[in-house]
Amino acid sequence: MNVLSVAYPLLPAGPDAGGGAEQILSLLDRGLTQNGNQSIVIAAEGSCVSGELIATPAVRGEITEDLRRAAQKNHLCHIEGALTRYPIDQIHFHGLDFHQYVPETDVPMLATLHLPLAWYPDWIFSASPTRLNCVSRTQAAERGLPFVENGIDLERYAAVDGEREHLLWLGRICPEKGVHVALEVAHELDMQIVVAGPVHRFREHEAYFREKIQPLLDCKRKYIGLVGVAQKVNLLRKSICLLIPSLVKETSSLVAIEAAASGLPVVAFRAGALPEIVEDGVTGFVVDSQAEMAIAIRRIRDISSEICRARANVRFDARRMVDDYLKLYAAR
User: Buried-most residue among 108, 151, 231, 289 (CB within 10 A)?
Assistant: First the structure.
């Protein structure tokens, strides 16, 4: 099978990417290649893929609306070019704005909705030429759509060992992720916390970091920027627990899955699919407020690292995810 995977135009895809959609695309690209399929990926320059990369120009400077529109137009040109060059059997979109660069073609198309459904234009659910799928049961239930539960490369993640040093927050630095809540909890408990992840060049993201995050940083509360897989694995091994104080409906949570695979408990807000990913009292705690998050951290030793790893091995293998997508492709 020849699969054309199309990433969000403004961010590179790969195992070290800062966004979940880009990481899932990378895992799917690798799995397709390992299974003997041809994988072609359209993504920003700097992407790392196992198949063949069709690179679009990297974004430089602040991401403006004009730049966004130009990137979408360029993406459509590359998709149309790929359709003339390769015998594509399936197009698979992963970007929030996929509806802006859907080509006119008879090739079957699928769009994975990695973000909250309310963030997409309503018309795609009735008039889009693409099929749609979700990434968790919770998300899919909103519209009665099929879903493929996210997976990770379980072999990359090692068990927690040695002295646990700090709390951890890991992800994109933006308002909806509630990074400031994690920092405020760390201050309240007088505990160390490491915050890791990219600040993308969106004006509102940079303003959030400058106004809400930087004032909360000090010698115990540190921001270390974007981390690759190896550094992420090391952080997960040395942390007391992972905090996910999301302020929007999460569709899944790769970082919660990675934590479980590392034997690391998670304390998460009851937001979207997080209670589906984090099993309350088993792989962590699901809470309803900042105050409850602080209380749950004090109980974190009640969670077994061995059970966390066992649950991750049962549920979140990337090979299962790839097989599920191949079945979804075939069910057209």
Answer: 151
